[in-house]
Amino acid sequence: MSSLEGRGLACSRGPATLFRDVSFRVTGGEWLAVRGPNGSGKTTLLRCVAGLTRADAGAVSRDGDLIYSGHLAGIKDDLSAEENLHGALTLRAVSVDAGAERDALARVGLEKRRSLPARRLSAGQRRRIGLARLMLDPAPIWVLDEPLTALDDAGQALFGELLARHLERGGLALLATHHDLAPPPARELRMGV
Predict the structure, then answer these.
(1) Number of domains, the chain
(2) Residues 191 and 23: beta-carbon distance below 8 Å
(3) pLDDT at 193
(4) 88 lies in a domain?
(5) Report field, pTM of the whole predicted structure over 0.85
(6) Which phi and psi angles does 74 have, rounded to 5°?
(7) What are phi and psi of 110, to 5 degrees?
């Protein structure tokens, strides 16, 4: 079963301490909501968990492959939706056929826009490329920073479905979010309090 654990994590930026002594454990079938005001260290914590930022103290351990998505969509403007999706999967060594990629883009509402350069897509449509990526990437651990940013009601509902399906398959998620999601989190980790 997949698991993700942080023990005694601390991080500072210059003289400012963002957080200290943060600990959590999430196992397959659960998700943990990371909440707190702007500037409380939510993004930094997720980056530490994903191995993109070094914590000043503490340790992270995980059992399972991890996929990370920041609060920006991470899309290349000159590439099409299809090329962005394919590139993201290739970077993670996830091999799926072109038909599966097209089907995922259709499912997220980008069927007729899959060949457009990403610069011609709205912020929400760019976010939907990430939803297609979550559909196709088998990583059991999701670390996602504000995954509902720029998504309309239908996009938010689709993310909720993807999350529920991920948890049902034994996956887990660590999500920084200001939104209430269904299914509700197993626990909340409050930052900056």
Answers:
(1) 2
(2) no
(3) 61
(4) yes
(5) yes
(6) 70, 40
(7) -115, 20
